Structures are given as structure tokens and as C-alpha cells.
Recover the amino acids of this structure.
């Protein structure tokens, strides 16, 4: 299998630019590492190898997540913190309609932009969540319309989990390519998310995994949503 070419800049250099100088991101996501830590046990030997490689960063297990809709960044001309509550309050009635289902985790890929990703087979769960969130919240609707996965033929989104981040050196890419060879087709235990979540992700120059702060957890009730939801 051909090795992905090293990008011109490392992942965190690009994140600094994308995040307007390390502004916190607001995203709908699922915190797989936090809620399903045991599922990642088969990858522990790979994580140990990756941590020892120059130019490679492995996030803490509790950071591992799949973003299913990026809403924006906390900045004056994008999202104000006071608005965040309105996003999940507006989206929640629609998101509660979604039926929970098992999610498969497997298949490791080194991307061209310097990420090591784990595939997520969700049977359309997160595409449905994107659609329902957009129907409920104006900000989610705008975010979905501008999402690169939206095409004239519909939503092509496929969730992934970032397992590691590489700098721009060709040597890091070569070493990671070799390290993952035995894991490319790995299949982890299925998990079943029960909630859809909105979170604030903060990354800083000296602390790339500063905070994954889940600010709302919306239960997936499926047909039971008609009976209402009570804490």
C-alpha cells in the first residue's frame, strides 16, 4: 500500500491557522475514549509504539472522539459562549428522535494531512444526527451547508476518530506507516452510544489537549421521544 505523502506543515500548525490562533471549537461529537475506553484496549501496544516515535503525538485516551458537526470557534464574529446553550436547546427535540444503534470501530488509515484515523461504521447514525441538528438549530443548518461532506447528491459524511497527529517530516510518516501495518484492518468491539453531545474543544500551543468539555448530553430516545423526556 502506498504511503501517504507528508504534508507541507504539521497538524498543529494547520490547527493554529484554522482556529484563528487557538480559539476553542464548538462541535457536536461523540467522546468514544471517555465513554468506551475498554474498546480501545487492543490498540494499547500500537499506542506505545507511536508514543516512542519522533514527530508523532498520541492524545490521551479520554480525548479520542468523533466530531460529527463542527459549528465554529469561540470568537466575536463566529460564536459567543452565551449562544452555545441555544444550540443544544434548539437541536435537542430533533436529536431525541434518533434511535440508538451499535457502532463498529475498525480500520486504521494515515491521512494526507497527517492524522492517524480509526474508522467508524455507524449505519448512518451521525448523518441522521447532522440532518436533525440542522433542522432544529440555525447555526447547525449553516454549518452543515458549508461542510465539505455535503454534495449535490447529499451528505457523504463518514465519521472517524483521530488516534495520533504527525508533524510535517517525511520520517515520521514513514515510521508510522510501518508501525500501523499490522493494525490496518483491526476490528474493535462494537459500542452503542446512548447520547448525542455538544462540546467545547480547547487546544493551546503548549497543551494540545487542554480540554474536551462536554456541555450537553442529549439522549437518543427513538420512538420513545413522543412520551417526553424527564431528567
Amino acid at each position: 500500500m502506498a504511503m501517504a505523502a507528508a504534508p507541507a506543515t504539521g497538524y498543529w500548525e494547520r490547527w493554529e491557522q484554522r482556529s484563528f490562533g487557538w480559539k476553542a471549537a464548538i462541535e457536536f461529537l461523540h467522546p468514544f475514549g471517555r465513554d468506551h475506553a475498554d474498546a480501545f484496549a487492543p490498540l494499547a501496544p500500537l499506542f506505545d509504539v507511536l508514543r516512542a516515535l519522533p514527530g508523532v503525538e498520541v492524545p490521551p485516551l479520554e480525548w479520542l472522539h468523533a466530531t460529527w458537526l463542527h459549528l465554529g470557534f469561540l470568537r466575536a464574529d463566529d460564536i459567543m459562549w452565551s449562544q452555545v446553550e441555544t444550540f443544544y436547546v434548539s437541536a435537542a427535540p430533533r436529536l431525541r428522535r434518533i434511535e440508538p444503534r451499535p457502532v463498529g470501530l475498525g480500520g486504521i488509515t494515515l491521512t494526507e494531512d497527517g492524522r492517524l484515523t480509526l474508522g467508524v461504521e455507524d449505519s448512518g447514525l451521525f448523518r441522521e444526527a447532522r440532518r436533525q441538528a440542522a433542522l432544529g438549530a440555525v447555526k447547525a443548518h449553516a454549518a452543515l451547508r458549508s461542510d465539505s461532506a455535503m454534495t449535490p447528491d447529499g451528505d457523504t459524511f463518514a465519521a472517524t476518530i483521530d488516534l495520533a497527529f504527525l508533524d510535517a517530516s517525511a520520517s515520521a510518516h514513514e515510521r508510522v506507516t510501518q508501525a500501523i501495518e499490522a493494525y490496518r484492518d483491526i476490528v474493535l468491539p462494537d459500542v452503542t452510544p446512548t447520547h448525542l453531545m455538544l462540546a467545547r474543544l480547547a487546544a493551546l500551543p503548549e497543551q494540545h489537549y487542554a480540554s474536551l468539555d462536554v456541555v450537553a448530553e442529549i439522549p437518543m430516545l427513538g420512538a420513545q421521544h413522543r412520551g417526553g423526556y424527564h431528567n
About this structure: The chain has a mean pLDDT of 93. Residues 92 and 218 are 6 Å apart (CA to CA). Helices lie at 11-18, 32-35, 44-51, 81-95, 125-136, 138-146, 170-179.
